[in-house]
Amino acid sequence: MKQQPTHDFAATLQFGIVSAVDEAGHNLRVRLPALEDMETDWLPMVTPAAGGNRFYSLPDEGEQVVCLLDAQGESGAVIGATYNAADKPPVASKDKWVRRFSNGTLIEHDRTSGNVLVKTSGVVTIDADTVVEKTLTVNGLLTYTAGMSGSGGGGASANIDGAIHATGDITSGRISLPGHIHPGDSGGTTGKPK
């Protein structure tokens, strides 16, 4: 009688340290201190979506992660990173979604207020690519604390390439664009713009 093959489908949960990162494949090698510092083969890093919608994020070398491995420790997956004594959580609130990067950039959403914060020393680009035109729509108050520039540059000054249409007043300092007058121009007084 032929002997039936036996299988051990038991899995093991292991905490380890990222030893190598395959950026193109979204894979990691992990050193496992509990298994005499054995290094795994390349393991896929679990991600929230990898089909039509895709999410890409990898831990750094030296970061602590959790792996789910087969009984032999030969295959499995990295299921996530874990906070620890060396790497603390960036906030302490169940109502916040936070993405903090090593260069200081921060993206944060507070679901209690609805506020979204983007803080960076770099440039934030919003590219709304439509067939007819590129449009940025802001429904609410828009406040600039620095200048604004179009394709002509200009840093702290406002350079806008194209028309500006306003249904309300536009002021600079306390001077109204549609309500101002110019006394004494050309030896006389001008009226309000029409």
Question: What does this protein look like?
Answer:
The structure is a single chain. With 194 residues, the chain is mainly beta. Among the domains are: 12-81, Gp5 N-terminal domain (OB fold (Dihydrolipoamide Acetyltransferase, E2P), Beta Barrel), CATH 2.40.50.230; 89-122, no CATH class. It has strands at 12-22, 27-32, 38-39, 43-44, 64-69, 76-81, 96-100, 106-110, 116-119, 171-172, 175-176. A hairpin with a 6-residue loop joins β5 (64-69) and β6 (76-81). The model has no long low-confidence stretch (mean pLDDT 82).
For the structure shown, list the relevant keywords.
11 strands, OB fold (Dihydrolipoamide Acetyltransferase, E2P), 6-stranded antiparallel sheet, single chain, mainly beta, 194 residues
Order of helices and strands: EEEEEEEEEEE
Helix/strand-derived category reads mainly beta
- How does the major sheet shape up? 6 strands, antiparallel
Backbone shape: elongated
Give the CATH class of the domain at 12-81: Mainly Beta
Continuous helix count: 0
Helix content: under 10%
CATH architecture of the domain at 12-81: Beta Barrel
Cα end-to-end separation: 103 Å
List the SSEs and their pairings.
Layout: E1 12-22, E2 27-32, E3 38-39, E4 43-44, E5 64-69, E6 76-81, E7 96-100, E8 106-110, E9 116-119, E10 171-172, E11 175-176
Antiparallel strand pairs: 1-2, 1-5, 2-3, 2-4, 5-6, 7-8, 8-9, 10-11
Biased composition (Gly residues): 185-194
InterPro entries: Gp5/Vgr_OB, GpV-like_apex, GpV/Gp45, Vgr_OB-fold_dom_sf
Pfam families: Apex, Phage_base_V
